[in-house]
Amino acid sequence: MEQLLPNCETLALEQRGPALMVTINRPEVRNAMSLKMVDELSAIFTQVENNNTIRAVVIRGAGGHFCAGGDIKDMAGAKNQEGEGRDNPFYKLNRAFGEMIQQVNESSKIVIAITEGAVMGGGFGLACVSDLAIAGPTARFGMPETTLGIIPAQIAPFVVARTGLTQARRLALLGLRVDAQEAQRLGIVHEVAGNEEHIETLLAAALDRARLCAPNATAQTKALLHRVGNENMSDLLDDAAEMFSTAVRGPEGAEGTMAFVQKREPRWASN
Asked: Architecture of 11-210 per CATH?
């Protein structure tokens, strides 16, 4: 995968069949998210968007932690810079993370988060924009920003979308930390694994299911789901009917129907 991101410093990449494994690789700081990491994650998702060999992106942290939040060194560096309003270095730092997490949220690929250890702040936000989140037994989730005198500015909307406003208020306003079981109850994660072997089993099962789903149909379905609640329902359903009609008559629809009739896997399952 060297050609995907030649100057990658904070992430380790490996392509396993149709899945790109992205490992946040700063274990010495519990994978705290630096501006360099933000830039690299954004570059990865830009590159994979039109890469038909990649159907899913799996994000995990090295050294037993997912991501402990923002990098304190970046925050300290910003203090030494000048600027007002949107030229303020803290604005630029925070907004760059927001643009990246929105990009991950809107990716046409299936995004899977494997969460272990510290899943805090920006790491918590990254987990909340995954399509599937699997938690290991050590995972601890939290929004500690208010306890530090700051606010969860860029992740708050995604936490609300994930958990609902009532639970997001409780998490954010009290700066709570919850374990994997509570995170599953709140809808932050979908599955909880008992150990490393179980994590790999759950991930393999998810990737096998992703393999069976048509790439274009998956991308269009994800885009449609993101529109729910943001548009007039009647207009949205009109658009959805047009999308359905096009899909049925398209190559994926024809292949999927034929595969079903012939009781075989569709051709895209082997790509």
From this structure: Alpha-Beta Complex (3.90)
* 98: number of Cβ within 10 Å: 17
3-class SS letters over the chain: CCCCCCCCCCEEEEEECCEEEEEECCHHHCCCECHHHHHHHHHHHHHHCCCCCCCEEEEEEHHHCCECCECHHHHHHHHCCCCCHHHCHHHHHHHHHHHHHHHHHCCCCEEEEEECCEEECHHHHHHHCCCEEEECCCCEEECCHHHHCCCCCCCHHHHHHHHCHHHHHHHHHCCCEEEHHHHHHHCCCCEECCCHHHHHHHHHHHHHHHHHCCHHHHHHHHHHHHHCCCCCHHHHHHHHHHHHHHHHHCHHHHHHHHHHHCCCCCHHHHC
Of the options 1.10.510.10, 2.40.40.10, 1.10.12.10, 3.10.50.40, the CATH number for the domain spanning 214-270: 1.10.12.10
Cα 81 from Cα 33, distance rounded (Å) = 20
Residue 94 reports pLDDT greater than 50: yes
pLDDT level of residue 84 (50, 70, 90 thresholds): low
Domain boundaries, the chain: 11-210, 214-270
Angle between helices 233-249 and 251-261 (to 10 degrees): 70
- At residue 3, the pLDDT reads 47
pTM for the model = 0.93
